[in-house]
Write a structure and sequence with these properties.
Elements: H1 10-14, H2 17-29, H3 35-44, H4 48-55, H5 69-78, E1 83-88, H6 91-105, E2 112-113, H7 118-123, H8 126-140, E3 144-149, H9 151-155, H10 160-169, H11 191-207, E4 222-225, H12 232-244, E5 249-252, H13 276-281, E6 287-290
Parallel strand pairs: 1-2, 1-3, 4-5, 4-6
Helix pairs in contact: 5-11, 8-10
Bound molecules: iron/sulfur cluster.
């Protein structure tokens, strides 16, 4: 069908005799309606009668794309400076999150899992977390590890707060090392809930019981909660508009850089993102807006 001397792109190729004959055979095989019938139905969809029928609908089912909570939590965690997303639970789930983001952003996604298996499902995943946190810190040297969970850890009721504190007491990670966490069971909510839970986890970690000396409006900034936003261009447009309006801001999770690193052959495990000091300073902002919800 193709010839090296003259390679046809799709449209002329599909109009060639061979393709046209193949399409005709496919029509017969599929018992497709004749062209006249298709045209008749198409014309009917342009009539007032069809419009009336459409407007008589009483119910509508909307079935939006729905992914799971830890996927959202990973995206949120990626938006913080030198932060390693850590998922407590099964390895396959995390392979799915990485693949999902790899395909969308065309970027390597640094996210670790503590790979719970059958024994952890019976005895709990604390042992996995001890080793996982220690290895993550040693190998990848992040400045923050943001922990979320898969269904497996949630079904057996693993307690992240207890496990992380025990890991610190056991000397696996320094006591003061930042380890915000969020329980992200996927049998409730969706990727957007998971994103929100992770942000709440980060904000709680850095601001709960640490509000002394904070005054609303004192830093003159606006907090922007970016939400589960996978179109990085939107983040850039918001930044540009804020700059043009001379508005100082803090993005609460800013994955714009890490998810769009240059293709120059150098792997960047961490790039850009909201810094811990900015999170600690967030309560001093004038106000907080959720940019993907119009609030
Ligand atoms: S098992 Fe749960 S956490 Fe894992 S991919 Fe499925 S829904 Fe997500």
């Amino acid at each position: 069908m193709q010839n090296v001397e003259a390679i046809n792109p799709g449209y002329p190729l599909f109009n060639s005799d061979e393709y046209q004959q193949a399409f005709a055979r496919k029509h017969v095989f599929e018992e497709a309606p004749p062209k006249e019938k298709l045209e008749e139905v198409f014309q009917w969809t342009t009539t007032e009668a069809y419009k009336e029928l459409n407007f008589q609908r009483q119910a509508l089912t909307i079935n939006p794309a729905k992914a799971c909570q830890p996927l959202g939590a990973v995206l949120c965690a990626l938006g913080f400076y030198k932060t390693l997303p850590y998922v407590h639970g099964s390895q396959g789930c995390v392979a799915y999150f990485r693949t999902y983001f790899n395909r969308h952003f065309r970027e390597p996604i640094a996210t670790v899992s503590d790979s719970m298996t059958e024994d952890a499902a019976v005895f709990g995943g604390q042992k996995n977390m001890f080793e996982g946190l220690e290895n993550s810190l040693t190998l990848y040297q992040p400045e923050m590890i943001a922990v979320s969970t898969t269904c497996m850890a949630e079904v057996i009721g693993d307690d992240l707060n207890a496990f992380i504190n025990n890991a610190k007491k056991d000397g696996r990670v320094p006591m003061e090392f930042p380890t915000p966490f969020a329980h992200t069971p996927s049998f409730v909510g969706s990727h957007t809930t998971g994103w929100d839970n992770m942000l709440e986890g980060v904000l709680r970690y850095f601001t709960l019981n640490k509000m002394e000396g904070k005054t609303v409006g004192s830093n003159g900034k606006l907090n922007i909660v970016t939400g589960f936003e996978t179109y990085l261009g939107n983040l850039r447009v918001i930044k540009r508009m804020l700059k043009e309006m001379d508005v100082d801001y803090t993005f609460l999770s800013d994955p714009e850089e890490i998810l769009d690193t240059p293709t120059d052959g150098e792997f960047r495990m961490y790039a850009g993102g909201t810094r811990i000091e900015e999170v600690q300073d967030a309560p001093n902002a004038i106000d907080t807006c959720c940019c993907n919800r119009g609030i």
